[in-house]
Design brief:
By secondary structure, the protein is mostly helical. The chain has one domain (about 5-180): Arp2/3 complex 21 kDa subunit ARPC3. The protein has eight helices and two strands. The protein has helices at about 5-25, 40-55, 55-75, 80-100, 115-135, 135-140, 145-170, 175-180; strands at about 30-35, 35-40. A two-stranded antiparallel sheet has the order 1-2. Helix 1 packs parallel to helix 3 (about 55-75). The two termini are about 15 Å apart.
Length: about 180
């Protein structure tokens, strides 16, 4: 592995730790109950920024580690996994796809795709896989649209805040390409 690639991996690991720390520190202050789970816009903000800056795999790792820490501290539920990980993954994948397309100048808007991963993919997984696996009868009794609506209350504002941060970082020339040469 070249020296530049090694430095990029170290920087991604450091930024991942910082994003995880930020998400965990915000958790006790930025959440509200929604339909039996905890809405946490801070996680979605971090997913949006990490997905754009770090890419899909590192951003997913940030969401997973944050979810594990939040659950272990009692400030999150098992639903942080299907909620956070797909959101971060979708943002990173969409950013990569837009960067390779003729719409590359709009790649930063990938931050706004976080609700696709969190709400549609994550909400569906939560209702049909996670809730039955843990015997959560209250969640299993909810219609999918109701679950999606509740999760949107967290994901949409978080992704908008994340997009605003991505915009500000881009204006300061802090982009994935500048940080890692990608």
């Amino acid at each position: 592995m070249g020296e530049v690639k090694a430095k990029a991996k170290i920087l991604k690991a450091v930024l991942s730790a910082l994003f995880t720390g930020l998400a965990v520190v915000l958790a006790p202050w930025l959440w509200f109950p929604v339909l039996g789970s905890k809405a946490y816009p801070g996680q979605h903000l971090v997913n949006a920024v990490a997905g754009v800056l770090l890419g899909p795999w590192w951003a997913s790792l940030v969401a997973m580690v944050t979810g594990v820490i939040r659950m272990s501290w009692g400030i999150g539920t098992i639903y942080s996994m299907p909620g956070g990980i797909p959101g971060a993954l979708v943002v990173g994948l969409m950013y990569d796809a837009l960067k390779k397309s003729r719409w590359k100048r709009y790649a930063r808007f990938a931050a706004l795709t976080e609700p696709i991963g969190t709400v549609i993919i994550g909400g569906t997984l939560a209702l049909f896989l996670v809730a039955p696996a843990i015997g959560d009868v209250k969640t299993m009794a909810k219609p999918l649209l109701a679950l999606w609506s509740g999760w949107s209350l967290s994901s949409v504002p978080g992704s908008i805040l994340g997009f605003i941060i991505v915009e500000a970082l881009e204006r300061m020339s802090i982009t994935r390409e500048q940080l890692f040469g990608e």
